[in-house]
Write a structure and sequence with these properties.
Blueprint lengths: L1 H23 L14 E7 L3 E15 L2 E5 L4 E6 L8 E2 L4 E5 L2 H36 L5 H33 L2 E3 L4 E6 L6 E2 L4 E7 L2 E8 L1 H4 L10 E2 L7 E8 L2 E12 L10 E8 L14 E18 L8 E5 L5 E5 L1 E6 L2 E6 L6 E3 L12 E5 L4 H4 L8
Parallel strand pairs: 1-22
Antiparallel strand pairs: 1-21, 2-11, 2-16, 3-10, 4-6, 4-9, 5-8, 6-7, 8-10, 11-15, 12-14, 13-14, 13-16, 14-15, 16-20, 17-18, 17-21, 19-20
Helix pairs in contact: 2-3
Length: 395
């Protein structure tokens, strides 16, 4: 029994001795000074520049000139041009329709014969007046005879004039039996065919010109000032003040670009949309690199506005609440600065006041910011997508 108790006691003593030695020889902790962590931020240096403002809008392409083809005479249609169909294209002066002209030709021949008759009667009356006038001078004719000869001469002259008017009228009617295109363009729709009888004033079809197209574009009230135009005036704009416009559209799955200009404005604000409206005109011609604009196509438009000096461009991420930015001072500390925004263009912000050349602006999206906190500024290289002039938002 005594031997069995000695072994556990010996093991316990040995464990206590080892534990005491480990405690006696434990390493000592030496205090060290802590280094505060400084947040690294991206900064850009302010550089004022001249900025070309622009206004983005949208609209549908419409023809500059559109009219109805209307018959000026009555009759039966004897011929129609192959171009006189919906979508058909024609040139200026091209014959589009012919009406039966037999009755008009007969009327013209009749009036031509009447003109010859009245001319002969006028020549006879003139000769008779001259003869009676000589006799009157010799006192061989009475006053009533000379008056009668004068009256006959004036009536014959009036008959000649009336015959001339009639023959001109029938000649015009004869010419109107053929309808010609008033301009180069296309047919929107037509409603007649060969053999049909049409009356004077009846609409034959709708035509539109293809030399120029126009796009009616809405412009927000706030953005109208970017174009440097008088908001109270409307009508045609002179070429020296008409803003240039760039039209963009996708056609047959490919993007294309056209150049035009805003040629006029409307002197009122739309009561529903509260927008100003301008009209952009584009010369519609086919080139090797682009097709002509198709009527009804929906397009995007960038209208080039005025230039503004001393503008600072920053990424949109630089703007914080209440139109403030974070400035990194000479001691690398963050400071809040209020600025005046000119406009916001998607990923870009244009600032007109509040910053000076050479100041450093923080563009890192910090969640917690304390005025005066230390930072480690790192010069940022802004990519083209961050500073490019994107089409502006409605700002």
């Amino acid at each position: 029994m005594k031997r069995n108790l000695l072994w556990p006691i010996a093991v316990l003593l040995l464990a206590l001795i080892i534990a005491g030695l480990m405690i006696a020889n434990k390493p000592r902790l030496e205090p060290k000074s802590t280094v505060p962590t400084v947040t690294a931020v991206r900064v850009i240096t302010v550089e004022p520049k001249t900025v070309q403002l622009s206004v983005r809008s949208q609209g549908s392409v419409a023809p500059r000139t559109e009219s109805y083809l209307v018959s000026e005479v009555s009759g039966r249609i004897v011929w129609a041009s192959p171009s006189l169909v919906s979508g058909g294209q024609f040139e200026k002066g091209e014959a589009l329709l012919r009406i039966d002209d037999q009755d008009y030709q007969t009327a013209f021949d009749k009036n031509a014969a009447m003109e010859v008759k009245t001319v002969v009667e006028y020549e006879h009356a003139q000769a008779e007046y001259q003869r009676i006038n000589k006799l009157f001078q010799q006192q061989l004719a009475s006053k009533s005879q000379i008056d009668q000869a004068d009256r006959s001469l004036r009536l014959a002259k009036a008959n000649v004039k009336e015959a001339n008017i009639s023959i001109k009228q029938t000649e015009r009617d004869l010419q109107r039996t053929v309808l010609y295109a008033p301009f180069a363009g296309r047919v929107r729709n037509e409603s007649v065919d060969v053999g049909q009888f049409i009356s004077r004033g009846e609409k034959i079809g709708s035509l539109y010109a293809i030399d120029y197209v126009e796009i009616r574009v809405p412009i927000a009230n706030a953005q109208f000032a970017y174009l440097n135009l008088n908001t109270t005036s409307g009508g045609q704009l002179s070429p020296d003040v008409a803003p240039e416009a760039r039209i963009t559209a996708s056609y047959a799955g490919r993007p294309f670009y056209w150049q035009g200009s805003m040629v006029r404005t409307e002197a009122e604000i739309d009561s529903q949309s509260r927008m100003f409206y301008g009209v952009v005109r584009v010369k519609n011609e086919r080139t090797e690199t682009q097709p002509p604009l198709v009527i009804g196509l929906f397009v995007d438009i960038d209208i080039i506005g005025r230039e503004v000096d001393n503008i600072i461009s920053l990424p949109r991420s630089a703007i914080r609440d209440n139109n403030q930015v974070l400035i990194v001072d000479q001691q690398n500390r963050l400071r809040f600065r209020s600025v005046q925004l000119l406009r916001i263009q998607r990923d870009e912000v244009l600032i007109s006041q509040g910053l000076e050349k050479g100041e450093r602006v923080c563009i890192s999206p910090l969640q917690i910011v304390i005025d005066g906190m230390s930072v480690n500024p790192i010069a940022a290289e802004i990519s083209a997508s961050e500073t490019s002039h994107q089409p502006p938002e409605q700002q």
